[in-house]
Amino acid sequence: MLSGAADLISERRNVLAALMGIGVGKNRLEALGDVEESSDLIRYYCHQMEDHDGFSVPMNRLSPAEATFDVMRPYGVWAVISPFNFPMALAAGPVGAALIAGNTVVLKPSNQGALLGLELARALADAGLPAGACHVVTGSGPEAGAALVAHPGVDGITFTGSYEVGMGIQRRFATRWPKPAICEMGGKNPVVISRHADLDAAAEGVMRSAFGFGGQKCSAASRVYVERPVVDDFVDLLVSRTEEIAIGDPLDRGTYLVPVIDRAAVTRYQEAVAEAAVSGVVHTGGRVITDGDLGRGNFVAPTVVTADPSSWLWRRELFVPLVAVAPVDSIHQGIDRANDTEYGLTAGFFSEDPAEVDRFLERIEAGVVYVNRRIGATTGAWPAVQPFGGWKGSGTAGKAGGGPYYVTQYLGEQSRTIVGG
Ligand code: NAD
After folding, report:
1. For position 421, what pLDDT does the model report?
2. In the chain, is it the N or the C terminus that has fewer CB atoms within a 10 Å radius of its CB?
């Protein structure tokens, strides 16, 4: 049934992607990617379950008279609370994993993009999932979401969203006994660029990761630390690439940069630009777009700034198209500053020197790392290709979505010894 639902989602990709463009303003390519990622996540979890034979393992015997099986059992009712920025994939991933593990699910999608949560449930129902195995509850976070978190009938939860809400859920969810709470939270994702880097690849990789979906990805690149001898050349390349970005209607074929999600995001952008103007330099962008048709939406210009190390721009997750660049004296200092955050989701590195690459991989504190990746310095994970999960304040699980250890989180282990069995 679940692979059938995955196939239905793929078949419906154009309609679902259009709904996403209209609902949250994702551009065509990224909306199609979000839909396909949803079906690939479900398929991957199905394969995990099949490949491991339901995670049922015969164990050793202490005597010939007894036999022990180790089995993995569903918890019961699993709540899924999903964010606006991947309205299909971040609902479908946890919902698919919880269901394939044998739980039933109550999904509370973000109000922004909630239609995609409903469409996910429709695909599951159309594929034959019994009524009642997957419910969708729409509503606001503080009301519908909080009620779900507090409900005694919920046995496990997967939350994906901001650090503040996720940490609150982590603290509140346990009641009479501990219950599994997977919280995937924000990011403040760094890129470190060596003097031995291909600067052209680095500039393109940063541009794509900073401005894809308007910087509204948990994996968006927001901090860039560049070795001092090449920082000016890097900023020039990044600014010229940024100024070529096509801004427009998400449904238009040529659009790359889309509007931010709401007025609150526009205000956050304005505050960040004002801070950059005081504590550094705004190299390009820095304005809300008010002309023509775009003036009727939440369009802001993609922005590159340099800022003083003491600025809050280096610490707060902004979720807008603004990236900060700073010079560093060495790769070590770059990695130190990259790690100087409560977050640990994704990170990128550019260098042609293999010894430097090893050093970065050894020291970086992030769950998903990319080296020399032109198509996205910190973004663009795919199920079964790049498992996706955060360290530190970016995630509680230590097990990544779309990776080999994900599904088992939705199962509790039971060791069964039968005498005479
Ligand atoms: P958000 O935290 O505002 O909301 C996420 C979900 O939680 C929504 O469904 C919302 O209605 C609900 N919610 C809000 N308050 C709640 C409460 N008190 N109790 C229960 N539920 C509540 O996040 P958002 O703005 O939708 O999404 C953006 C955030 O998500 C960013 O911080 C981003 O980094 C993060 N994110 C993380 C990942 C990841 O994999 N780590 C992926 C995508 C997004």
Report:
1. 62
2. C
- The structure tokens listed for 26 are 């994702």
Q: Is the pLDDT of residue 397 over 80?
A: no
Tokens representing 129 are 């999932």
For all residues of the chain together, what is the average pLDDT?
97
Helix axes 13-24, 114-126, angle to 10 degrees: 160
Q: Which atom of ligand 1 is nearest to the CA of 319?
A: 31
The string over 12-28, giving b where at least 16 C-beta atoms fall within 10 Å of a residue's C-beta and e elsewhere, is: bbeebbbbbbebbbbbb
Could you tell me the distance, in angstroms and rounded to a whole number, from the CA of residue 112 to the centre of ligand 1? 11
Question: Could you give the CA distance from residue 360 to residue 351 in angstroms, rounded to a whole number?
Answer: 10
What are 168-200's pLDDT values in tens digits? Answer: 999 999 988 999 999 999 999 999 999 999 999
**Taking the complete model, does pTM exceed 0.90, yes or no?**
yes
Nearest atom, ligand 1, residue 394 CA? 41
Q: Which residues contact 125 (CB under 8 A, 6 or more apart)?
A: 131, 134
- Domains of the chain from N-terminus onward: 2-185+395-419 (3.40.605.10), 189-371 (3.40.309.10)
Average pLDDT over residues 297-314: 97
Active site residue 342: no
